[in-house]
Amino acid sequence: MAAAAYDVVIIGGGAMGSSTAFFLKHELGFPGRVAVIERDPSFKTASTSLSTSGIRLQFSLPENIRLSAFGVAFLKSLQGRFGFDASFKEHGYLVLGSPEGRGVAESNVAIQNREGAKTMLLEPDALAERFPWLNLDGVAIGSYGPEREGWFDVVGVHGLYRQKAKEKGATLLTGDVVAIGRDGDRLTSVTLASGETIKAGIVVLAAGPRAGRVAKLMDVELPVEGRKRTAFVIHCRNAPASMPLLTDTTGVWLRPEGQYHLCGWSPPEEDDPAADPDDFEPVYSQFDEICWPAIANRIRAFEETKLVRAYAGHYDHHVLDRNCVIGRHPGIGNLYFINGFSGHGVQQSPGAGRALAELIHFGEYQSIDLSIFGYERIRLNKPVPETNIY
Known about the structure:
Number of helices: 9
Largest sheet: 8 strands, mixed
Strand content: 25-35%
Order of helices and strands: EHEEHEHEHEEHEEEEHEEEEHEEEHH
């Protein structure tokens, strides 16, 4: 039997791969055949499913701000377009800064404001007035985004991507990619563990934390690897009635989730090794030693807190600069990337999926120019740093 053939084969069915398929087929009307290959269609351990689903405009690079702004507009359009409620909780982000971080905060907010964000710089007196439940010891400044920042139903949005892409003809396949055929400067096929070989006109690498491993099947170096993050579900009877997502000076973050709260922490680079792909065991010591002490210090009500449960997930960490790798490979003309978002992937999946779909369909970016995040910077070892990663 002849091998199936597709004009575009997307490896990875998480938020990035599914968004690309959605924008190609549903939004742009791409006429070719599109297949999305996903190793685990339950998405039980997928970065998308285990994301804490925040969305913010508080970045230092204009391109990252534009990606998230596109995402907010997209979320807000879904009810009117599809009758789908993305459950966007527009409660804002509050990032607390130490005296040493004042200069960076001031620079970032200036960039955000130029991009149309309503981020405010709040001195301690203003923070105390707006958020009287905060202990401001050690806090010199706060950046607060009251609009277009919050959290949303990422699982529902991901399902919408897949449903609408399928309705317009995309094929959703299940399989583990074990080999990728290459003939000189072009990729020719994708082989699954089942033995099935699929002919490919274009290959899109959207494999999340496993992207670096999949790239090796093409003899391509991609410094993207999984990093484990633990999220803790906690209950506090006397928590503030409403609050934004809070990022403390310690790096610990906290946000409401119904009657509970979510919190977590990202370790420093030197203490943050690549994750075992099969390791999803929560690191409970982070709660006792880092998260709870920081939260209880910052919000006294959380001195009485019950840990309800914890879960761990992986995100696709780009080792070079913790920004995405997106666009066409400079030497393999039919290989495209959408990887390495380093913890801000789900919020940027609408904008990134749209941009990559445009590049494939039209041959150029139209909505947002993401050339700054191209693969060439990896070859040249020229990082594009983002200072607002947390």
